[in-house]
């Protein structure tokens, strides 16, 4: 059995269309949309609306930790654009989702990332797409558990949830062979992004579940350039499956 796993797709519909080649199924750990690209400031919803120069300014403020200034700048731009910002964002997200889900191979098992908009997914799913969040699925004789979304941060991305809600989903998944989350367990070397030079948030609940239940694998994404892409906790192999937008290739799991 061979399963390909991707995370942090961020608009890479071209590579996603090939991600299932040679696999029995695809697992997608979320973050399908691209709001702004920190490497190419001309790509994403923000530069599409306001231009790459404004995107560069916006990224610079966020990279410097000046989040209030970034929000104030964004508010001025939205006011100049006119209309409800939520309508503009939803229209742009829908255009990206239409392309992404059309390219998504079948069968695919999906969960949400922290930048996704879960209420919109049902409009674009195809028959071979199965969304799981706080639930399990059997794939090739192994039980896969899925926990979607992210934890609360100063970035205020769209699908961040309270620690307690996240922990309830981890508990609901229970004992599995493969634990699939968007964000990593709270292990420092898995959380530090060497390019952004900052720690992302990880889940203490996921870490505790790994220690207690010892799945074969814990798979995740979220940190685009991690200090360590994998580590072992007891018998559990913890693997960051890679920044799919940057790599364009899936992680392969075989058994």
UniProtKB/TrEMBL annotation:
Top-level taxonomic group: Bacteria
Record domain Calcineurin-like phosphoesterase: where: 1-226
InterPro entries the UniProt entry points to: Calcineurin-like_PHP, Metallo-depent_PP-like
One Gene Ontology term of the molecular function aspect: hydrolase activity
Alphabetical list of SUPFAM superfamilies matching this protein: Metallo-dependent phosphatases
Protein name: Metallophosphoesterase
Organism: Planotetraspora thailandica
Lineage: Bacteria, Bacillati, Actinomycetota, Actinomycetes, Streptosporangiales
């Amino acid at each position: 059995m061979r399963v390909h796993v991707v995370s942090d797709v961020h608009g890479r519909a071209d590579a996603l269309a090939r991600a299932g080649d040679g696999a029995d199924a695809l697992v997608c750990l979320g973050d399908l949309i691209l709001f702004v690209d920190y490497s190419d400031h001309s790509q994403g919803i923000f530069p599409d609306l306001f231009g790459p120069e404004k995107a560069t300014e916006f990224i610079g403020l966020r990279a410097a930790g000046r989040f209030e200034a970034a929000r104030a700048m964004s508010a001025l731009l939205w006011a100049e654009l006119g209309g409800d910002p939520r309508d503009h964002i939803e229209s742009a997200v829908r255009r990206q989702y239409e392309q992404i889900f059309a390219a998504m191979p079948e069968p695919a098992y999906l969960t949400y990332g922290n930048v996704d908009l879960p209420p919109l997914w049902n409009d674009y799913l195809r028959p071979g797409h199965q969304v799981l969040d706080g639930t399990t699925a059997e794939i090739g004789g192994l039980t896969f558990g899925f926990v979607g979304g992210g934890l609360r941060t100063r970035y205020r991305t769209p699908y961040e949830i309270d620690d307690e809600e996240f922990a309830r989903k981890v508990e609901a998944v229970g004992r599995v062979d493969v634990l699939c989350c968007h964000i990593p367990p709270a292990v420092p070397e898995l959380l530090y992004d060497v390019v952004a030079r900052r720690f992302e948030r990880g889940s203490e609940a996921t870490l505790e579940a790994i220690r207690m239940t010892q799945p074969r694998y814990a798979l995740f994404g979220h940190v685009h350039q991690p200090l360590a892409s994998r580590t072992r906790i007891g018998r559990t192999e913890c693997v960051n499956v890679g920044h799919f937008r940057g790599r364009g290739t899936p992680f392969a799991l075989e058994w």
